[in-house]
Write a structure and sequence with these properties.
This protein is of the alpha/beta class. The chain has 2 domains: about 230 residues, P-loop containing nucleotide triphosphate hydrolases (Rossmann fold), CATH 3.40.50.300; about 100 residues, Helicase, Ruva Protein, domain 3, CATH 1.10.8.60. It has 13 helices and 10 strands. The strands form 3 sheets. The protein has a 5-stranded parallel beta sheet. The protein has a 3-stranded mixed beta sheet with strand order 8-9-10. A two-stranded antiparallel sheet has the order 4-5. A hairpin with a 5-residue loop joins strand 4 and strand 5. Helix 2 runs antiparallel to helix 3. The longest helix has 23 residues. The chain is globular. Bound molecules: adenosine-5'-triphosphate and magnesium ion. Adenosine-5'-triphosphate binds next to helix 4 and helix 13.
Length: about 350
């Protein structure tokens, strides 16, 4: 038997660690999620994914604005070069039994058979691969809203990686990672994070709190879905509320993204922004919310930075090539934007 010396594995850090590092830089503070997902991607890249089933099936739970959708976008960017390179199904659009025909197309002979292009055709799946990578990422957002016939369809997909369309053609999901996101348990998690006044506030350690949120999520999942369905999921991952450190990194990322946006959109009319540490601390203070995660932070940046900048551009107060400094006002209640002269 030929043995592979372990040292070769250590000497050459594989693309797995690269991918993990790359994803971790952009999905902040959720290492438990990424370390569960990356090995499945790696299995596909190595050509070792088992046959007859999707490469991976993940159910992402947890509070709003913690990076669930972001994870799939960032993975799409890493694998295919674009965040949009994924097939996203908003399950809220498939709450009625008859709407499920939009997913698989109507059977021949039915009214509208020719017009209904199934959303989940092989062509659509192949359309979200790229020259670099043959893996399709499929996201079923808010799965708890789907009609039960859709959950039944999905059961077949998760189990055998095959979907039968209305016209009897089959679609293979073998080269697919399926992400299901859900708000199941989100309300109970919110209560856990912000106990109402009058209730005893549990000052739980981070690990304790993580375990508790996981428990809430898993209970909600078991109540909603059949055991067959839950059994076909490779991992149920509960995203954790973002802490101060993670939010500080996200503020920096968002400011960088805003600068990039200004350059991309305004091109030769672009200007530069400089947001000092006091201004960043202000944004963090205003934008920290256990309840809404990074969504609140994004809203705060929009309100206090993007919109005032836009007003200054429209009024001519900012002209192309300007440098705009953002600092917190003396009372700490606003940001002051000043154009460098
Ligand atoms: N962990 C994170 N790292 C970096 N950015 C994040 C993170 N979480 C959220 N964000 C930022 O907030 C935005 C909203 O996050 P996202 O769409 O991932 O929320 P979600 O967890 O899917 O919430 P929902 O349950 O409401 O769909 C992202 O586009 C991103 O800019
Ligand atoms: Mg989402």
């Amino acid at each position: 038997m030929r043995t592979i010396p372990i040292s070769t594995k250590i000497r050459r850090p594989g693309p797995e660690s690269d991918l993990l590092r790359q994803l971790s830089e952009r999905v902040v503070g959720q290492p438990q999620a990424l370390t569960q997902i990356v090995p499945y991607v790696q299995m596909h890249l190595a050509g070792l994914a088992p046959e007859g089933r999707p490469v991976g099936v993940f159910l992402l739970l947890g509070p709003t604005g913690t990076g669930k959708t972001r994870t799939v976008e960032v993975l799409a960017q890493a694998l295919h070069g674009s965040e949009k390179h994924m097939l996203k199904v908003d399950c809220g659009e498939f709450q009625m039994e008859h709407e499920v025909a939009k997913l698989i197309g109507a059977p021949p002979g039915y009214l509208g058979h020719r017009e209904t292009q199934p959303m989940l055709s092989q062509q659509k799946l192949n359309g979200v691969t790229s020259d670099q990578c043959s893996l399709s990422l499929v996201l079923f957002d808010e799965i708890e809203k789907a009609a039960s016939s859709m959950t039944r369809l999905l059961l077949g997909v998760l189990d055998k990686a095959v979907l039968r369309l209305g016209d009897n053609a089959t679609v293979s999901f073998e080269r697919t990672i399926i992400f299901l996101t859900s708000n199941l348990g989100a309300e109970a998690m919110r209560k856990q994070l912000r106990p109402d006044f009058g209730f005893e506030t549990m000052v739980a350690g981070k690990r304790d709190s993580a375990k508790r949120l996981e428990g809430i999520g898993m209970n909600a999942v078991k109540r909603k879905f059949s055991p067959e369905f839950v059994n076909r999921i490779d991992a149920v991952i509960t995203y954790q509320p973002l802490g101060a450190k993670a939010l500080a990194i996200i503020v920096d990322q968002q400011i960088e993204a805003l600068q990039q946006h200004i350059v991309n959109r305004l091109m030769d009319r672009a200007f530069e922004i400089d947001v000092n540490s006091g201004a960043r601390a202000f944004l963090l203070r205003k934008g920290t919310s256990e309840e809404y995660g990074a969504r609140e932070l994004k809203r705060t940046i929009l309100r206090h930075l993007t919109q005032p900048l836009a007003a200054m551009v429209s009024s001519g107060a900012i002209i192309p090539g300007d440098m705009v400094h953002a600092v917190a006002s003396a009372d700490g209640e606003r940001l002051t934007l000043a154009v460098e002269v």
